[in-house]
Design brief:
The protein has helices at about 20-25, 45-55, 65-70, 75-80, 95-100, 110-120, 155-170, 175-190, 200-205, 205-210, and strands spanning about 35, 60, 90, 125, 135, 140-145, 220-224. By secondary structure, it is of the alpha/beta class. The protein is globular. Mean pLDDT is about 90; it is low at about 1-5.
């Protein structure tokens, strides 16, 4: 994850700022996916970073400061995202979605809103909420039903973006990575339980990951 600050000691952190920092990072062929937005700052550096990753052909997740940086500039973001080799994944909550699109989808239901935005941006849109909608550019959407209310805490969404980025880095297709990431995030929230903070989620995800190693006949925790 490209991050402008210092992370926990257990993580390997490489500082990257703006297009120059991202371009230098992208010289490393081992980096196959990046998340741009969380703690990156609002402004031109974040816009430049998104543009650099889009042109690089790497898998990309956009969150947090991206939506303030592109507030009211959805068409500019669309042009950048159309340069991506793989559909990028966007993970806004309702407020961030409105910040980006304004009143464009004001009177549209959540599933239709996410699907329409995904088609327009040629992206996977994860519209976060009590029942998170995951939609792709083909207009197909699913709804996650296993997210506990405890996940509505600061930093929880950043963890979700990191989970999806990790799945993308392992070669999982964008829509599948987003759907699996949302389910894992919800299950981790249930494991961590009442009073969880965002830092609890990475540890709590071990159990759900073990569940996914077992064969299942239908997706877990989703409804069409």
């Amino acid at each position: 994850m490209a991050h402008a600050g210092r992370g926990p000691d257990a993580l390997m952190v490489r500082r990257a700022e703006g297009a120059d920092g991202i371009s230098e990072m992208l010289e490393d062929d081992r980096i196959t996916a990046l998340c741009i937005g969380p703690a990156y700052g609002v402004g031109d550096d974040t816009v430049a970073a998104a543009r650099a990753v889009a042109k690089s052909g790497r898998a990309m997740v956009l969150d947090a400061d991206i939506y303030s940086s592109f507030a009211g500039r959805a068409e500019e973001l669309r042009k950048i995202l159309h340069e991506c080799k793989h559909p990028p994944v966007l993970t806004p909550h309702e407020g961030e979605f409105s910040r980006l699109f304004g009143d464009t989808y004001k009177d549209v239901g959540r599933a239709e809103k996410a699907a329409s935005a995904a088609r327009h941006l040629r992206a996977v849109v994860v519209l976060k909420g009590a029942e998170t909608v995951i939609a792709n550019e083909d207009g197909w959407a699913c709804i996650n039903t296993n997210a506990p209310p405890q996940l509505a805490t600061a930093g929880s969404g950043d963890v979700l973006s990191g989970i999806i980025t990790g799945l993308l880095a392992q070669g999982m297709p964008p829509h599948e990575a987003a759907s699996a990431g949302v389910w894992l995030h919800g299950e981790a929230g249930s494991v961590a339980g009442t009073g969880l903070i965002a830092d609890d989620l990475p540890e709590a995800i071990r159990g759900p990951l073990t569940i996914l190693q077992q064969p299942v006949s239908t997706p877990i925790g989703f409804g069409n």
